Amino acid sequence: MNIHQFVNFLRTTGQLWQTPPHITPNLSGPRLARRMLRQAEQGKALLIAPATGYMAKLLLGGFGHSTRLANALGVNDLNELEERVRCTLQTAPHHWNKAWSKLQSWEPIITDEQHPVYTSSANMDMIKLPSQRNHILDGGNFLTMGIVSIFDWQENRQHIGIYRIQIHNRQEATINFLPGSKGEQIVSRAQNTGNSLPIAIILGAPASYILAATTPVPHNISRLALAQWLSNNEDKLINYGPFTVPRSSQVVLLGHMPPGQTSVEAPFFNHTGAPTKPRLCPVFKFEECWSETNPLIQGVVTGKFPTETHVLGEAVEAILRPLAQHCCRSIANIYFIRAGIYHGATVIDLTPAGSIEHALDFLRQHRPWSASRLLVFTHNLSGCSNKSIFLHLLSRVRPRSINILNKQLIIDATGTYRSLLEDGSQKSLEAWQAMGVECKVPFEGMQNRLILGFSDSTVKPLELQAVHTAGPTLLLLQDRQLLNADLETMIWRAINQVSLSDDIYQSESLLIVDARNSTFP
């Protein structure tokens, strides 16, 4: 369904709140959206009406929980989406790229249908868009759910992806292409050859296109064709410039990237719980757009879960799980660890005859796992909720089963190792506390396998390692400001912010993760 149909669905089912005039895309709207997201299915999506000068309404929290996203995709829940993928793969080869090719649909492009209203840059500027300032530490205003469309002349096809867009002035924005992404590769090729690169920014697209734009597909698979498959060909396509775009898109900005022109992107409070560092990004020059009458666009609020990005991650998991099971005989199941979903942190449940070596060889060849920061292998994990997965694994792993290989943290949790608190570990706690570390053993510590330590930066991990005698598997060092924070916040910060090369200290019986070198959110 298109975004207007989705908003009408939310309104009729009591899941939408149209905000009063004092709620805006700058700080107050995102702050209220976070509050709604924490209420899960009890929280409502927010429809922020345009204030004076804005050209569009803004929807925040539209994908606030998995059922709501599934409804936007035309299914009852994400299990139904997963089953649809599984049924489609029944006749597919057990080969990653060939299996993916089954999840594509090429709907003919509509060329004779009336287009929306065209507007030149002389009559419309990007300042009028309801761009967001999500956090007081943000250094500017951002479009957070714009689909960036680039034509790859080398491969003669169109690429779409969701990249962060900062509005700088009436006709200029920067686009933050993630290092290593397909978009970054296309832009780099164009910059190196001195060619101007046509760009379209699609706002208010159907949910199927948003999901397709965030799904890590093989480079030979078209995300446009995946979006058509996800929508059962209900989202009609039209041509605009060199691009093919959904007919129901609310606003499409057309422009180009001049070769060699960059500008500094301001700090953005992202998933790590801290603002990003200023970074040079390529400049988008706005030329013209189309706009529907009374347009409506979507945005997301980033930060610690729950966020809509984590809900989209659940949908991506529903697509990838049957693909991985179909193509690798060692994989029984996969689960994204939501605290590390931005970095592809994944638990891989192995089949009884499966091996870590076979599964790891498969995963390292395919996205998103080829770039994952954390891969955890286990057996018989069924029935464990996402919230408890990481804690459940602590009862199964020895420190020596944790390895850093090719910039990835690999954890072998297939065993059933257990350890009760011994006199030796009690002595370790006392020694650490004498050195200035306040220690806590959480209830979820799985028989004291996890110790939380709070200290300032003067306490050195190697000194703590030297006095350790026995006991805990993992010492998670945090700043004292987090003393009363919940455990999931601490694990979230550790996964997203530590350096695998500088902040992890490992011995035979102790693993120290130093998560103190980060800005408190």
Mean pLDDT: 86
Number of strand elements: 26
How many H/I helices?
14
Fraction in beta strands: 15-25%
Q: What general outline do the C-alpha atoms trace?
A: globular
Summarize the amount of helix as a percent range.
25-40%
What is the count of distinct domains? 3
Per CATH, the superfamily of the largest domain is Electron Transport, Fmn-binding Protein, Chain A
CATH level-two architecture of the largest domain? Roll
| Largest sheet report | 10 strands, antiparallel
In CATH, what is the class of the largest domain? Mainly Beta
Instruction: Return residue spans where pLDDT drops below 50 for at least 5 consecutive residues.
Output: 417-422
Through-space gap between termini: 37 Å
Give the helix/strand class.
Answer: alpha+beta
- Radius of gyration equals 24 Å
CATH topology of the largest domain: Pnp Oxidase, Chain A
Pfam families: UbiD (PF01977)
Keywords: Lyase
Enzyme class: lyase
EC number: 4.1.1.98
Structure report:
The structure is a single chain. This protein is of the alpha+beta class. It folds into three domains: 3-299, Roll (Pnp Oxidase, Chain A), CATH 2.30.110.10; 328-413, UbiD C-terminal domain-like (3-Layer(aba) Sandwich), CATH 3.40.1670.10; 423-514, UbiD C-terminal domain-like, CATH 3.40.1670. It is 26% helix and 25% strand. The protein has 14 helices and 26 strands. The protein has helices at residues 3-12, 28-37, 66-72, 78-88, 96-100, 182-193, 207-214, 223-230, 308-327, 356-363, 386-394, 423-434, 461-466, 487-497; strands spanning 16-18, 45-48, 57-60, 117-120, 141-143, 147-152, 157-162, 164-167, 172-176, 197-203, 237-240, 243-246, 251-257, 262-265, 279-291, 296-299, 331-336, 346-350, 374-379, 402-405, 408-413, 438-440, 450-454, 474-478, 504-506, 511-514. Strands 4, 5, 6, 7, 8, 9, 10, 13, 14 and 15 form a ten-stranded antiparallel sheet that branches. Strands 17-18-19-21-20 form a five-stranded mixed sheet. Helix 4 packs parallel to helix 9 and helix 7 (207-214) crosses helix 8 (223-230). Mean pLDDT is 86; it is low at 417-422.
